[in-house]
Design goal:
Length: about 1450
């Protein structure tokens, strides 16, 4: 495979040293015949099984085949690895299930009985590997008991219609308790009904749901104990199973997943977050917790938009890395990293797009992450590729630099000659080391050493040895002259061998205390060679290595802080040249169960996939002498991924930094979804806005044992290819060395095994620009100068370079001070340079910003780009605008003015126009004069100064600007071209000037026409003055009027005695003009006109005086009609007196009210019986706080009495209420007869007397048939505590029940209520009260008669006897109507067919004079008389019997109303 080199993918996997994906094409016979594949679960020995017809290949992570399984003439149809061991379960087309693998205790085990002669479809283990479920093409589902040693025993099986290729275990229970040991499982698949079954290993299996179509996706939402299913017709179903086995919380939804729903693939991208794709250009994410969804799109993922037309064809999620990977139609792998830790990723802003990888040239139909974080398997119909993320190893020692470019290839570069050669090894190199004249490459089992020929620049094989029994963890090479040594970390020791691999000494480690060595690094110089090692227990050990011994420096140091808390897990160490400091890069492991809804989920944590490796945002330095750890935070959401020390200075080192949202920050920082999304938006803005590059190198100084200080930041962007990044590989002052792609092509391709892709370039460090070739002493002085500046020690910085005499060096240092922002030091440098102009400019600069002063210096040092950067950083865009103008860069100046400095936009256009004028570029100058807004004067000036009068005329003609036409008209007028001036004045709309020119030409007709057409007041005024001077007074008055100058018109009319015109002019004048005209008419003896004008002018008092003196009554009435409450009280009083004298009392009352003479107004109404309307009453009502309360109440009471007398009862009620006399108000309201208002008023008044009045009034209404009225009567009497009234009312109710309905039961109830309230009314003497005793006897009789009716059914003879007895009872009619007793007897005898007795009873009624019809039905009478053979007697029309016992109607209402009638 030919693949281009890839940069920028280092954040895809574990951020160690800069990394790439190495691809390995699996050696298959026919990739199209592959039916299935599967990754093992363990990270220690990751294996990939690929089934190819009758052969199952087992590959290692590097693509090498470990072993194979063959069954001739059979086809492997299913694969699955045991979750806890390296045992592979395979299913075949004849129904055979086999268990075998490296950890199988009893060798190969197989079973052919359960699925005999039926092709296997799928094999699935439960999370702990204790049960295995298999399915075949005939619908048989088998359950097996298994263990980590390969045991395989049948338990049970089920047969269900369809092909069941979807199996998920129910790892949670309805109670919320996890069930991982032996959980039941759901299964389903390709069936028309879409049935989903729930089964266990006890032989229990039942259908739980039907989704109506074949299943494309079936999975289990562990946190909520829910089943998630998606069908071929794009139906989404979500449901739970309650403890009784019933489906609950069911939810169905039609998904919008594009036009190919049958191609849908889905995967969990976090707890409750489902990611799906169906051959679209987007990935859809469904948040099942919050019921929301959003998309991740392929558009815009790379700068060339090469993914815009691509489609996603496969998907997988790595919970350890929190990375979502997608394979595409064009053979790319697209990845997004989730940027949230504590919350669910709720939008696309929470996903950081990683660089795109181009892997193959055809569609990737399946992509799967391997165990851990580094492996990815991509499958197409042509090939299978394993992508392995690996470190890009580098090593440097003067004069050589080595960098790994492919798994088997290293580029060896000569730093001084800038040339290189390629070194290849027959294995995948895990690391390399360079020392002296030797280059070493190693894998976990092999070491190759090459000897470098200096003159020919070739690397020759020196030695090679293997380590089959003790895998190599890390190795380094160091040399003493021509003699070399190798340190190899293996197991719990470091072996020191010669170049042939013979061990000479060993450094032992305690695995329990110190851990095993995992990372080695070596460095050295004049003080010797130093070896550093970090262990799996995060212990650091350091030795000074000589030819004969290894002397330990200090004690082993645990990587922990002062509080004994771990600072993280060390992933990389480097030691400086003198062995005094060790730099470290660190990771942190975060449990998935601690990540919240956005994490991998509690189920993932429970089955061993629950840790996320997160890089620290800090780089640490261990200071050996102080035994202390220093740290430097490279930025929020930025992480260091590689580091290297300078080969000459022990204080300086560099680290490569990239943006990564999923990064560990110190506990004080708060990382949440919203902050991450905002940070991601900031990162997406790019470097164009002056922010720190997304990928850069930071050079850092270690200031003794105190702090790590930033020296400079260098972007990794390749200047020659803006679409790619460079990789920093070495720091050798004065250069930083980078590796970049040697070929043009797409960024982000995987790297093939045999392809060289990189070349070495170098970039001069900022402090050494222009000084690359100075001697070593000057280089050291400059480095010291930079170090002391970083420490903030200006004096020491100056001392370190004060002996330097070269002006070039001082100039370079001045430029360096500008770049580093050291304004204090740059003054000294300018002095040593002798740059007087720059020093003077700096002293006289008054700008408050330090960056602005530095920019001034930068301009004098010809550092224009730096000056621009400084001014942009301090936001002084006005100065930047001036800088661009001074530099002649007018386009940039205008751009800054338009976007950042708009206040100076017009001055910038003006300055550019002046520049163009000086260059005689007339057309462009005119354009910018127009943009500056000065064209009205500057454009004519420019054209006139150049004598371009014709061009001037054409320029003005083209313009629509009135001011420009006015200027040109004035220009023509000055040249005596009055016709041309008039034409231009007309175009400009300058009617005054046009009229002035016409008057100057004595063309008054034209002037009048201009004024009449334009109605311009200034022109009319000018013409009027001209006509006045000409003696044409009438015309002058007319044009003064048009000009709105009425004072001049009135003046002329008065001076010339134009009385007829004066009145019309005065009425349209202002108040002052009206007053002057009124005085004129008053003097001329025309008071009527004077009164009108005085009134219009607002002088009403003067107008009234004139009316009274001239007896102008009509005018006086008109004045009175226009008066309001805001008029002068004296004027109102005079008018009122006038109307009273002339018997116009209603107008007088109106005016008295407005003048606040309420007493007189009310008296006038009473004396002359003036009808009071509601509006008049409101005017006569004083404000609450305008007078004494008693006086106000008296006025309102008198007004209310008058309203009552006039029959305005509701208005009287209102005024009595305002006066505070609610009782009288209620009595007035009762006379109005408005029941609704009476009830409302009584409810709001809350006075017992008013309640009683309201109740009495309501009794006079038809309360028998109006339930609401009856309720209000009872309510009002109850609130008034008028128990006697209530007793009387209930007595009346009882009588109504008797008279109208013959309902003695209800009547008894009403009488009992009456007795209750009568007892309360009488009080303590109720027992002896005659009324109470009478009422009690009435109740007894009524209840007795009510009981008779019931007795008629049970004991008729007794009923007849009781009725007869009651007829003989004295005063029976006070309680029971005799007619009702007789009627009861008649009805009884008629019912028993005893018509003769019924006839005798009717005759007895007639003998007593009782009218029959109110008591006995006419039909019943006819039946009785017909049966006895007698004619029906003729009844005289008349009322029924009197309502015995009913008291006369309550007449309190009338009494209460009348008693106030005389008031």
């Amino acid at each position: 495979l030919q693949r281009l080199a890839r940069r920028g993918s280092r954040t895809v996997g574990r951020p160690g040293m800069s990394s790439i994906y190495f691809d390995k094409l699996l050696p298959l016979h026919d990739a199209r015949s592959v039916r299935c594949s599967a990754w093992s679960r363990g990270e220690d020995t990751p294996l990939l099984a690929v089934a190819e017809v009758d052969l199952v290949h087992i590959f290692r992570e590097d693509g090498e085949q470990l072993f194979e399984i063959r069954r001739p003439e059979r086809v492997c149809t299913a694969l699955c690895w045991h979750p806890c061991s390296l045992i592979l379960a395979t299913g075949w087309d004849d129904g055979t299930v086999t268990f075998e693998g490296p950890q199988s205790a009893g060798g190969k085990r197989e079973d052919r009985e359960m699925h005999r002669d039926r092709a296997m479809v799928t094999i699935t283990f439960n999370p702990r590997g204790t049960r295995c479920v298999t399915t075949d093409a005939d619908g048989v589902v088998g359950v097996w008991k298994t263990d980590h040693k390969g045991m395989l025993n049948q338990i049970c099986h089920y047969r269900k219609p369809g092909v069941h290729d979807k199996i998920v275990f129910r790892t949670n229970s309805p109670s919320g308790e996890p069930n991982l040991d032996n959980p039941p499982f759901f299964f389903g698949g390709d069936s028309d009904a879409g049935a989903i079954y729930l089964a266990d290993d006890m032989g229990l299996c039942s259908e739980r749901n039907k989704v109506g179509a074949s299943l494309l996706f079936l999975d289990y939402f562990h946190e909520r104990d829910q089943v998630i299913a998606i069908t071929r017709n794009a139906m989404f179903m979500q449901f739970s199973i309650d403890p009784e086995g019933k489906v609950v919380n069911e939810r169905n939804q039609k998904l919008n997943i594009g036009g190919n729903p049958e191609t849908l693939q889905g995967v969990w991208a976090g707890a409750g977050l489902l990611a799906t794709t169906a051959h679209e250009s987007v990935v859809r994410l469904w948040n099942l917790v919050d019921d929301e969804n959003y998309i991740l799109t392929l558009h815009g993922l790379d700068k060339r938009s090469s993914t815009s037309t691509d489609k996603v064809t496969s998907i997988d999620f790595n919970s350890r890395k929190r990375v979502l990977a997608c394979g595409t139609k064009d053979g790319r792998v697209v990845q997004w990293r989730c940027s949230t830790l504590a919350t669910m990723p709720n939008s696309d802003h929470c996903w950081q797009a990683l660089p795109v990888i181009s892997v193959l040239d055809c569609a990737i139909d399946r992509i799967r992450f391997g165990p851990g974080e580094k492996l990815l398997h991509a499958r197409t119909d042509r090939s299978h590729v394993v992508l392995n993320e690996a470190q890009l190893n580098t090593a440097v020692q003067r004069p050589y630099l080595a960098m790994q470019t492919t798994p088997t290839q290293v580029l060896l570069h000569h730093l001084e000659r800038q040339s290189g050669t390629t070194v290849k090894v027959p294995f995948h190199a895990r690391g390399l080391s360079l020392c002296g004249m030797y280059l070493m490459l190693y894998s976990d089992k092999q070491v190759n050493v090459f000897e470098i020929a200096e003159h020919s620049m070739t690397a020759n094989d020196h030695s090679s040895f293997g380590r089959e029994n003790a895998p190599i963890t890390s190795a380094v090479l160091f040399a003493f002259g021509m003699e070399g040594r190798i340190a190899i970390a293996s197991g719990a020791k470091i072996e020191l061998t010669n170049l042939l691999g013979h061990m000479q000494r060993a450094i032992q480690f305690s695995p329990q205390v110190e851990g095993c060595p995992t990372c080695l690094a070596v460095n050295g110089g004049a003080k010797g060679m130093f070896l550093v090692a970090s262990t799996s227990a995060n212990v650091i050990r350091l030795w000074k290595v000589s030819r004969n011994e290894e002397k330990q420096v200090g004690n082993p140091r645990v990587f922990e802080g002062a509080n004994k808390m771990s600072l993280g897990d060390i992933r990389s160490v480097r030691v400086n040249i003198d062995g005094t400091r060790v730099s470290l890069l660190v990771d942190h492991y975060i449990a998935a169960s601690d990540l919240g809804p956005g994490g991998a989920g509690s189920a993932a944590a429970a089955i061993g996939r629950g840790e996320v490796r997160v890089p620290d945002t800090r780089v640490f330095v261990y200071d050996v002498e102080s035994d202390n750890f220093l740290s430097y935070m490279v930025g929020k959401h930025r992480v260091p991924i590689s580091h290297t020390w300078d080969c000459g200075d022990p204080r300086l080192f560099a680290c490569e930094v990239v943006t990564q949202l999923l990064a560990y920050e110190p506990p004080a920082e708060d990382d949440n979804s919203k902050a991450s999304a905002i940070a991601l938006e900031d990162l997406r803005k790019g470097e164009g806005e002056g922010e720190e590059p997304s990928q850069c190198v930071k050079t850092l100084f270690v200031a003794r044992a105190e702090a790590v200080l930033l020296q400079d930041t260098i972007s990794c962007s390749d200047p020659q290819n803006p679409f790619s990044m460079r990789m920093p590989v070495a720091l050798l002052v004065p250069h930083m060395y980078f590796a970049r792609s040697a070929q043009e092509g797409e960024v982000g391709r995987a790297v093939g095994a045999e392809q060289e892709t990189s070349t070495i370039t170098r970039q001069t460090l900022r402090d050494f620009v222009g000084l690359e070739h100075v001697d070593a002493e000057t280089t050291s002085a400059l480095l010291n100068f930079s170090y002391h500046l970083a420490c903030g020690n200006t004096d020491e910085a100056y001392k370190s370079v004060k002996m330097v005499q070269s002006k070039n060096v001082w100039e370079s240092m001045s430029k360096m001070c500008v770049k580093t922002g050291r304004l204090d030091v740059v003054q000294q440098c300018l002095g040593h340079m002798g740059h007087a102009r720059a020093a003077a400019a700096l002293r006289t600069c008054t700008e408050p910003e330090e960056h602005a002063k530095l920019a001034m210096v930068a301009v004098h040092l010809d550092m224009i780009d730096d000056a621009v950067d400084l001014l942009e950083r301090c936001g002084r865009y006005d100065l930047l605008n001036q800088l661009y103008q001074a530099s002649g860069d007018w386009e940039k100046a205008l751009d800054i003015a338009k976007t950042k400095d708009r206040i100076h936009l017009k001055p910038t256009h003006f300055a550019y126009a002046q520049h163009l004028e000086a260059m005689e570029r007339v057309e462009e100058a005119l354009s910018h004069f127009e943009s500056s807004g000065t064209y009205r004067t500057e454009s004519p000036r420019l054209l006139c100064s150049l004598g371009l009068t014709d061009d001037l005329e054409a320029y003005v003609e083209r313009s629509d600007d009135t001011q420009l036409h006015r200027w040109y008209a004035q220009y023509l007028e000055s040249k005596a071209n009055l016709d041309g001036a008039s034409r231009e004045y007309r175009k400009a709309g300058d009617w005054l000037s046009l009229c002035r020119v016409a008057c100057f030409n004595k063309d008054l007709d034209q002037a009048q026409k201009v004024c009449e057409d334009s109605q311009d007041q200034a022109a009319c005024y000018h013409l009027a003055r001209h006509l006045e001077a000409e003696g044409r007074i009438k015309d002058a008055i007319h044009y003064f009027q048009l000009a709105g100058r009425m004072s001049h018109a009135l003046r002329l009319a008065q001076e010339n005695n134009f009385d007829g015109d004066l009145m019309s002019l005065a009425l349209s004048a202002d108040p002052l003009g009206m007053t002057q005209a009124a005085k004129y008419y008053e003097q001329r003896g025309q008071p009527s006109k004077a009164v009108v004008l005085y009134q219009k002018a607002g002088h009403q008092k003067r107008a009234l005086d004139l009316c009274f003196s001239a007896k102008l009554f009509d005018a006086l009435r008109r004045i009175a009609d226009d008066l309001s409450s805001d008029s002068d009280p004296e004027v109102l009083a005079k008018c009122a007196e006038f109307f009273m004298q002339h018997s116009q009392h209603d107008k007088a009352v109106h005016l008295l009210s407005m003048s606040h003479q309420y007493d007189r107004a009310v008296d006038l109404c009473m004396d002359h019986n003036v009808t009071i309307t509601e509006e008049m009453a409101e005017r006569m009502t004083p404000e609450k706080n305008s007078m004494d309360a008693a006086q106000r109440s008296d006025i309102l009471s008198r007004m209310a009495q008058l309203c009552k007398k006039q029959g305005a009862f509701q208005l009287a009620c209102k005024k009595f209420t305002q006066a505070g006399d609610k009782l009288k108000a209620m009595k007035c309201l009762l006379q109005s007869g408005d029941t609704e208002k009476i009830i409302f008023f009584a409810g709001t008044a809350r006075q017992p007397d008013i309640y009683v009045l309201a109740g009495n009034y309501l009794q006079s209404l038809d309360w028998h048939n109006e339930t609401e009225i009856m309720k209000n009567i009872i309510q009002f009497y109850s609130k008034a505590k008028a128990h006697d009234k209530l007793a009387t009312f209930y007595d009346a109710c009882a009588q109504v029940e008797i008279d109208e309905y013959r309902d003695y039961d209800k009547a008894a109830g009403a009488l009992r209520e009456s007795l209750k309230y009568l007892t309360k009314s009488v009080g303590g003497a109720a027992e002896n009260d005659l009324g109470v005793q009478n009422l009690q006897s009435r109740i007894a009789l009524v209840e007795k008669f009510a009981g008779i009716r019931k007795l008629a059914k049970s004991n008729p003879e007794e009923m007849v006897s009781v009725c007869e007895g009651m007829l003989d009872t004295q005063d029976i009619e006070t309680a029971v109507r005799i007619g009702d007793i007789f009627a009861q007897l008649v009805e009884h005898f008629a019912e028993t067919q005893n018509f003769p007795e019924a006839h005798r009873t009717v005759e007895r009624m007639r003998q007593r004079g009782i009218v029959l019809t109110p008591y006995v039905d006419q039909a019943l009478l006819e039946a009785i008389y017909r049966n006895v053979g007698q004619p029906v007697p003729v009844q005289a029309a008349g009322a029924g019997a009197p309502a015995h016992g009913q008291p006369p109607p309550d007449d309190d209402v009338g009494e209460d109303i009348e008693e106030d009638g005389g008031n």
